[in-house]
Amino acid sequence: MSRNSIILHCAILAAGIVAPLLFPGLVFQFAMLWIMILFALTWDVLGGQMGYNSLGNILFFGFGMYICAITQIGMFYNVAEYTAAFGAIKVDFTDQQYYVGLALGLVLAAVACALVAALLSWVLFGLRGPYFAIGTLGAALAAAELTGAWNYVGGGGGISMPVFPGEPGVRSLFFYSLCMAASIACYFFLRWLYGTRFGLALNAIRDDEDKAEAMGLHTNRYKMVAWSISAFFLGIVGGLFGNMTGFIEPMEVAYPTLTFGIFMVAMTLLGGKGTLWGPVIGATLFHVVKEVTWTYLLGWQYVALGLLIIVNVVYFQQGIMGWMQERWPQRFGLVVDSEGAVASRENAP
Q1: Nearest Cα to 93, choosing from 85, 104, 102?
Q2: How many C-beta atoms lie closer than 10 Å to residue 69's C-beta?
Q3: Are 152 and 66 a contacting pair, CB within 8 Å?
Q4: Bridge partners of 160?
Q5: Which residue stretches of 149-276 are H helix?
Q6: Which terminal CB of the chain, N or C, has fewer other CB atoms within 10 Å?
Q7: Burial 328-339 (b: 16+ CB within 10 A, else e)
Q8: Is the pLDDT of residue 341 over 80?
Q9: Domain locations in the chain?
Q10: C-alpha–C-alpha distance, residues 182 and 125, integer Å
Q11: Which residues touch 49 (CB under 8 Å, ≥6 apart)?
């Protein structure tokens, strides 16, 4: 890691620590920014690095949310009685019960989501191109419908999460810190992963999967592991988001395919897929635009975001990082063979 890179990372870390202290009224929005960054980073593992565009990654976000909730409640109360009706049982979580339940819930959410991704990969990675995207979208929609019909977890009525044992200000900073830690851990893990043979294998699958397999690469194994890594981090942030909102239900909170599910793709395309910093930049810009339009263009916010996506897809397909790499390749360690390019033009008919 170069000196400039270290300075940049330290500056971002310092900004992340100071921001909620300087702007205490925007702590939830800052926490959502870290969640959006994690969304984009995890989607890019498949869509950018491996070339498999998924529309159903939100499945693991919602599944992790419910696994975490069931664990937190089920350790100390009967889940069916807890979700049956308000007032059916008296609920009183102690401080220790809350923190132990949350910690174990996040761990189980991450592991369970990774296992579900591994199981689904045996079916869905038999599809390619738009069929894979549609297949993952169908899996996410099916999960939302099945959860809405499962009375054990409250069905369509949802679940009220355990109450945080502390002041509202402390609660906001607590979950902000966890969201920030999860996103930073995801970033540095992927930064390391893309520098290994595993990262080269993902790029080989993206460039030509048939040739990669013919050369002895176990493509199905790499695809399964890559999707499981994405699901692992999405399960963690799903559990955190469920506790942040305090209430979860299938359609709008746990499996919001039309919002968060689309945002994942849009943010990565905006920043530049297939790059490490692209999802981070795209998520930051997209989240800022979203918050501004939600505040000052209420009622037109989806129109504004839709126009942003259209302009990005039609006129700016390489994304911000792709444009910057084309404009200043030397700054990104890219070598341009200008002499070879001149020779090619001279030999052209």
Answers
A1: 102
A2: 30
A3: no
A4: 247
A5: 168-194, 197-214, 219-245, 262-271
A6: C
A7: eeeeeeeeeeee
A8: no
A9: 3-270
A10: 27
A11: 194, 199, 202, 203, 206, 226, 274
CA–CA distance, 44 with 265 (Å, rounded to integer): 8
Rg value, the chain, Cα: 22
| 29 token code pair | 């929005």
Enclosing H/E stretch for 145: helix 130-148
Residue type, 191: R
First CA to last CA distance, the chain = 45
Tell how many helices (H) and how many strands (E) occur in the chain.
Answer: 14, 2
Q: Do the Cβ atoms of 50 and 221 come closer than 8 Å?
A: no
| Tokens read off for 35 | 């969640």
Burial state string for 174-200 with b = 16 or more CB within 10 A and e = fewer than 16: bbbebbbebbbebbeebeebbeeeebe
Reported as a single tens digit per residue, the pLDDT across 230-280 is 999 999 999 999 999 999 999 889 999 988 999 999 999 999 998 999 999
What type of residue sits at position 82?
Answer: Y
Half-sphere exposure of 180 (CA within 13 A, CB side): 20
Q: Which of 63, 260, 92 is nearest to 165 (CA)?
A: 92
- SS3 readout for 12-78: HHHHHHHHHHHCHHHHHHHHHHHHHHHHHHHHHHHHCCCCCCCCCCHHHHHHHHHHHHHHHHHCCCC
Which contacts of 307-311 are long-range, i.e. CB under 8 A and separated by 24 or more positions? 308/266, 308/270, 309/266, 309/269, 309/270
DSSP 248: E
Q: Rounded to whole angstroms, what are the CA distances from 271 to 11, 24, 201, 205? A: 20, 28, 23, 22
Q: For residue 32, which amino acid is it?
A: M
Measured distance CA(145)–CA(257) in Å, rounded: 12
How confident is the model over 173-194, as pLDDT tens digits? 999 999 999 999 999 999 999 9
